[in-house]
Amino acid sequence: MSKFFDETQKAEQWAANQNIVNAQAQEVLETVRQTDTAGKDVADVRLRGCRRIKLPSAGLPLISSNGKTPDKLALVATECYRGLRTRLLRQQSKTGLRSVVITSAFAGEGKTLTALNLALACAGLADQRVLLVDADLRTRGLSKLLGEPQGPALPDALSGGAAFPDVVLATDLANLHVVAAGAKPAGGNEPFTGNRWKEFVGWCGESFKLVLVDSPPILPLADFELISASCDAVMFVVRALHTKRQVMRQAAAQLEGKKVVGVVFNGAPAGGVHKEYLSYYRAE
Amino acid sequence: MDLAFFHLREEPFRLTPDPRFLHFAEPHRTAFTTLVKGVTARKGIIVLTGPVGTGKTTLLHFLLKVLAEKKASGGPVASAFLWNPTLTPPEFLEAVLDELGIDCPSASKPRRLSALHQKLLETQRRNGTAVLLVDEAHLLSWELLEEVRLLSNIDTYAAKLLQIVLAGQPELSALLKQPRARALQQRVGAQCELRPLSLAETRAYVAQRLHVAGSDGASPFLPRALEAIHQYAEGIPRMINQLCDGCLEMGFDAKNNQIGVNIVEDAAAALGFHGSSAAAPVGERAIHPGGTGAGQAMPQVS
Question: Does B16 fall in a domain?
């Protein structure tokens, strides 16, 4: 038998074990990840000693980070958010975007929930440091969901009253940081008119791979335009059976076409998902 | 230049492909993951393309460094790095053997190929990895592309014994798409592409480099200056390095440790950078970085 043939036989056995191959790749990438980040990461230094909040596990919507088994619908929703994450990250890989504004035509279409769940989904990945910013200074919906954290918040950073790192809060999810909207509702759009907002978004992009901005709705206010002008991309949330076509057109007309990375069709009727799918997700 | 003036320990924007300074921007991270997976999964030929200065050579150096340090498969690593592939086929084979450390006194092709087989099989037997890296692969002649294809034929049914990484400018993918290169193209197991950095990535890149060079967090570059740097350098890491380095020099000469737009403009002029679309609004360029690579950065692992 040819010597070459003998050796190839052994090599085949080796290669047939895909687990080994995958483990090797993972091992190498893990080494890189460690050398790449251990103390070398600019964000580690900048965020050292930032305040910490606990994610309110009970109040959290569909993706639970506390290990409780979500119900059927939550599993489907989790999959949907992961799908959204995949699409966003693909877009990010193509264009190098970092800051995404999440908005809708009017209030109550699910911006805040989408922003939070998308942030949780993204922060679940290794190497994906995510910052979630509550830029809806009037309603402060996200900050309320997060238990209204005290201390310096976004308006202070924008007025110059606080340094950028001082308004960033760590959470019990290592990859997720948040910026709250402050204790009192702030009126007017002055916070976003100056250069500080742009500088803040730029600074965030240096420390975080993804910055998700929960913004006020597009239509009744001028805030959105100011907020999105400094960001790379816009994600538009539309609530199924709720947002009217005419309203959507009107809102869409205000968006810079190039910046729109996606439209989220929120709250699509559950009937659209077949029972078999539910059991499929459950089995996972 | 006195580095302490900018609170730095080392020069942050050196041009040599020093793996320590490799900052993984998104395109580099995805490309590198594809390279590592391709090599460890014995994919055979892996193609890496990207415009001039995007960091191909640096990635190859880093790949070798990681493979050597980690010994990817727990076994030995035999690697050959060809950085100038304008060779004749016999020279090419000689260079590969030489780089792999194969001692073959005979100049006959069968002898050399047999020596190469021996080495590859031995590496495989000891659970090792043999990898051939060809930089500037867009310069390969048709003859050499054929040689590469034949080298990639050294395999078992299940795994390639020699992993070949072809790195080159975007012309390389065009070259491989030609009908003449079909046989080779079909053997490409994984492909990845580097693109210029977006504004946000440029900022992160500069911040990271300054950090590695010992900066205490306060960047000498003002936000507007970073936007100007991104425009003039067109998001190309090598040009970003040159321009930032030039800015630090000029800032130091002017005893100014806050680099503003005017210093960037002067440094760009001194380097002869014009910034192909300096007139385009920054916001737009943040999404659509200049250059041809944009839009195809997703690695395709087949």
Answer: no
Residue of chain A whose Cα is closest to the Cα of B296: A94
Count of CB atoms situated within 10 Å of the CB of B260? 16
**Same-domain check for residues B125 and B180:** yes
B134 with B100, same domain: the answer is yes
Size of interface A-B (CB pairs under 8 A): 141
**Closest B-chain CA to A16:** B158
Lowest mean pLDDT among A63-67, A75-79, A93-97, A185-189: A63-67
Mind listing the pLDDT tens digit for each residue in B11-58? 778 765 555 556 667 788 889 889 988 888 888 899 999 999 898 988
3-state secondary structure B74-85: CCCEEEEEECCC
The alpha carbon of residue B293 is apart from the nearest alpha carbon of chain A, in Å, by: 9
Single residue among B170, B193, B216 that ends a domain in this structure: B193
- Looking up residue B181, the CATH number of its domain turns out to be 3.40.50.300
Out of B29, B41, B287, the one facing A258 most closely (by C-beta) is B287
B200: nearest CB among A7, A14, A205? A205
Same domain, residue pair B271 and B234: yes
- The residue count of chain A comes to 284
Do B169 and B249 fall within a single domain? Answer: no
B181 shares a domain with B48: yes
Residue B140 is predicted with a pLDDT of 92
Residues of A in contact with B58 (CB under 8 A): none
CB contacts of A207 in chain B (<8 Å) are: 204, 207
Are B147 and B75 in a shared domain? yes
Q: Does B290 reside within a domain?
A: no
Residues in chain B closer than 8 A to A99 (CB atoms)? 200
Contacts of B67 in chain A (CB under 8 A): 28
The tokens for B234 are 């067109």
Both B181 and B46 in one domain: the answer is yes
* Minimal CA separation from A274 to chain B, in Å: 32
CA distance to A74, B12, B258, per residue, from B241 (Å):
47, 8, 17
**Tens of pLDDT along A23-71?**
666 666 666 655 554 445 777 778 888 888 888 654 445 544 444 545 6
pTM greater than the 0.95 cutoff = no
Give the other-Cβ count within 10 Å of A83's Cβ. 11
Judging contacts by C-beta atoms under 8 Å, the chain A residues touching residue B286 are: 97, 232
Span A50-281 CATH architecture: 3-Layer(aba) Sandwich (3.40)
User: Other CB atoms closer than 10 Å to residue A175's CB: what's the count?
Assistant: 20
Q: Between chains, do A202 and B223 touch, taking CB under 8 Å as contact? A: yes
Residues B183 and B205 in one domain: no
- Answer yes or no: is pLDDT of B167 > 70: yes
Strands annotated E in B179-285: 188-193
Every domain of chain A and the residues it spans: 1-48, 50-281
Whole domain around residue B275: which residue ranges?
A: 197-284
From the CA of A199, how many Å to the nearest CA of chain B? 7
Helices (H), chain A: 3-16, 18-37, 42-46, 72-95, 111-123, 141-145, 154-159, 196-207, 223-229, 245-253, 275-283
Res. B173 pLDDT band, cuts 50 70 90: very high
Q: Is B19 a member of any domain? A: no
Number of domains in chain B: 2
